[in-house]
Amino acid sequence: MGKRPGLRPGGHELRESHRPHGRGSGGLVPVQPGTTDQQVQQYFDSGAMGPPPFATGGPSGGSDVESPGVSLQLTYNLPAGTYVLLCFVADDQTGMPHAMMGMHKVVVLH
Predict the structure, then answer these.
(1) What's the CA gap between 29 and 51, in Å, rounded?
(2) Fewer CB within 10 Å, N side or C side of the chain?
(3) Residue-wise burial string across 62-96, b where 16 or more C-beta atoms lie within 10 A, e elsewhere
(4) pTM of the prediction?
């Protein structure tokens, strides 16, 4: 996932534009402080079916799949904390969600 400048707690808007052939579906999910992208990938690689050990309760957000060429405006109001951005679009060849293939990023909202 690309760099997400300006993510911060409180009420804000996140805008994304997709290329004519692109699409997006993702989530912003709270995790325990100190969680790393390596831990997220290890969880996906493990094949575990239950909640990950770094999961926490709390507010989250995300979007469904957008049509190609459509822009997305996501308004969020999240408290400060650690979150993981996840891409849930299925790979065209394997059907595997992109997050399981490494398209995730742990971010901290200060």
Answers:
(1) 12
(2) C
(3) ebeebeeeeeeeeebebeebbbbbbbbbeeeeeee
(4) 0.75
Write the pLDDT tens digit of every residue in 48-66.
Answer: 999 999 999 888 777 766 6
> How many other C-beta atoms lie within 10 A of the C-beta of residue 34?
10
109/5 Cα distance (integer angstroms): 11
Can you read off the two tokens belonging to residue 65? 């799949």
Domain boundaries, the chain: 10-109
Tokens found for residue 77: 């109001």
Helix/strand/coil for 100: helix
Which residues partner with 77 through β-bridges?
Answer: 11
Q: What are the structure tokens assigned to 33, written together? A: 């402080």
Contact (CB, 8 A) for 50 and 100: no
Whole-angstrom distance, CA of residue 6 vs CA of residue 8:
6
